[in-house]
């Protein structure tokens, strides 16, 4: 019964996108469809979070049995990510409705915004739910294609410039991902994650290391980990505020999710951990030093985004129960807070007419509510004690201390310095934008209540993460347990006999040997023709 | 056991395609980047052909013995990759065209804000000799003008483009790092 829920977060937005595109002349109908679809996604996500708590929910798409067909798997981590991303997508969409971006006053093509946004939602959900590496690639491409369009909405000069860099970098990372896929298939004969988890330990260790590095490179570009992060602060800030917000919240986290999934399920032998730890340290420090130097608040936030990706990488690289639990918690926290901050900056831009900190000023007097809306998530991002950012960071640093190595303590120091510098950067922004005497006269605009309402909702959700931190940490802990145990995932996908619940063995003509009954008979490893995945064209 | 020895011709072609693809990707003109993406993509697609093992007959049940069939799955994956690449290439082409419409060329420009931050840092640090700027004798402004800087179109900086005199810059802000 609950398995019927699993494909919905992918199917609903895709159908919605088609419908919204067909109704391009009726903007009210488009809005209604988009809001309804996103709200349904959220409801389905909550259902999945509950259902996945008693074991991963698996669907064999099209009735094709597991290693042959594509599977969608909702374990605790996937379900949590789908839920949080649906909530963020919904709030950001309501915000953009309030802004009237879809009404054409932001040079945005009216008809294309809604369908593209839904396609983005479908791509994100697909990436979170898929149990198949090639399908993960397809999910990435779906969300990337949508993000290209959203980033260059209106086609102004600066957006084309930023979009060019973003698109080219993404294309390179996709090419790397494809190379990794081809090599993984050549080495193991499958791209099904559960089957890969069984087969990868059987292949040559060096080959496995190469495959792991290739995947990490591809995902590292998407997640903006330090040496591969330069594209992000360059391309995000020019997009419309809601688009930047949703990109900042979700797209890098899809990369982080992919790293968590592959590191726990496919490569549990932790050979890259030290490299990842160093990358995490550099990401944190270089990112935050970049943020300190910025004058444009959108760029400042983009740099803090890069910097805080470092915390998540740290948690993954610890590969301990504590580290992984804190990472899952931190991802949820960071999606919410980073999105909220970009939405608030959109409001500041609307009031002050600019995002340059040198030119903004006195906003606390002009718009006290806006000041509160900025202050709460800003302090949350910096990790001021009672808030969820603090709790997540404490968990991560605890994990680093437990590691006990000099590198672990170095990372504790790096994490603390980063947290302090985040506070410095964000307080600098606060002082300049909200407290200093305005360098130029600011004529206050009335803020549309829709935009304020959506932002307020996300701020409140961010606070509720603090209030509900106990249960959420428990859930994250159980998610981390499932991830580290691996067998719940593989058992749920492959079943006791090595096949999912599909019916594809019936297709084999009488006694045909086209599809072997059980994949692991004798020496299963490098036999490409044996079994793998059906691919959607 | 399936014969997984790759064909030498395929490997060489993949190497050439990927190498030229990477070379073209590093160019500034978007049309060359596009060609680079295409070559790189085709190289990767051929890699899938290597991944599928030795060539065989069409994998249709009844038309050949299963043992003689080639592996259909990498072909299905490549097909997906080709379709996706088609869409992406279309998008990059439209971006290149738009860039040409707006600027008269399709070269990827530098990040403005980056240059502003760098300029500010240079203005704030006149205390020591900067070997780079001292040698070239050029100001950051001249560098910026030479590297397709959009800043010159910005309303606040009309005065900077090619004027060699530092004094023509905005009042109050010491320009250039070679004080």
TrEMBL record, chain A:
<feature type="transmembrane region" description="Helical">
    <location>
        <begin position="110"/>
        <end position="128"/>
    </location>
</feature>
<feature type="transmembrane region" description="Helical">
    <location>
        <begin position="31"/>
        <end position="52"/>
    </location>
</feature>
<feature type="transmembrane region" description="Helical">
    <location>
        <begin position="407"/>
        <end position="430"/>
    </location>
</feature>
<feature type="transmembrane region" description="Helical">
    <location>
        <begin position="366"/>
        <end position="387"/>
    </location>
</feature>
<dbReference type="Pfam" id="PF00361">
    <property type="entry name" value="Proton_antipo_M"/>
</dbReference>
<keyword id="KW-1133">Transmembrane helix</keyword>
<feature type="transmembrane region" description="Helical">
    <location>
        <begin position="275"/>
        <end position="293"/>
    </location>
</feature>
<keyword id="KW-0472">Membrane</keyword>
<dbReference type="InterPro" id="IPR050586">
    <property type="entry name" value="CPA3_Na-H_Antiporter_D"/>
</dbReference>
<protein>
    <submittedName>
        <fullName>Na+/H+ antiporter subunit D</fullName>
    </submittedName>
</protein>
<feature type="transmembrane region" description="Helical">
    <location>
        <begin position="77"/>
        <end position="98"/>
    </location>
</feature>
<feature type="domain" description="NADH:quinone oxidoreductase/Mrp antiporter transmembrane">
    <location>
        <begin position="131"/>
        <end position="413"/>
    </location>
</feature>
<feature type="region of interest" description="Disordered">
    <location>
        <begin position="492"/>
        <end position="537"/>
    </location>
</feature>
<dbReference type="InterPro" id="IPR003918">
    <property type="entry name" value="NADH_UbQ_OxRdtase"/>
</dbReference>
<feature type="transmembrane region" description="Helical">
    <location>
        <begin position="300"/>
        <end position="318"/>
    </location>
</feature>
<comment type="similarity">
    <text>Belongs to the CPA3 antiporters (TC 2.A.63) subunit D family.</text>
</comment>
<keyword id="KW-1003">Cell membrane</keyword>
<feature type="transmembrane region" description="Helical">
    <location>
        <begin position="451"/>
        <end position="473"/>
    </location>
</feature>
<feature type="transmembrane region" description="Helical">
    <location>
        <begin position="239"/>
        <end position="260"/>
    </location>
</feature>
<feature type="transmembrane region" description="Helical">
    <location>
        <begin position="6"/>
        <end position="24"/>
    </location>
</feature>
<feature type="transmembrane region" description="Helical">
    <location>
        <begin position="208"/>
        <end position="232"/>
    </location>
</feature>
<dbReference type="InterPro" id="IPR001750">
    <property type="entry name" value="ND/Mrp_TM"/>
</dbReference>
<keyword id="KW-0812">Transmembrane</keyword>
<feature type="transmembrane region" description="Helical">
    <location>
        <begin position="165"/>
        <end position="188"/>
    </location>
</feature>
<feature type="transmembrane region" description="Helical">
    <location>
        <begin position="134"/>
        <end position="153"/>
    </location>
</feature>
<feature type="transmembrane region" description="Helical">
    <location>
        <begin position="324"/>
        <end position="345"/>
    </location>
</feature>
<feature type="compositionally biased region" description="Polar residues">
    <location>
        <begin position="528"/>
        <end position="537"/>
    </location>
</feature>
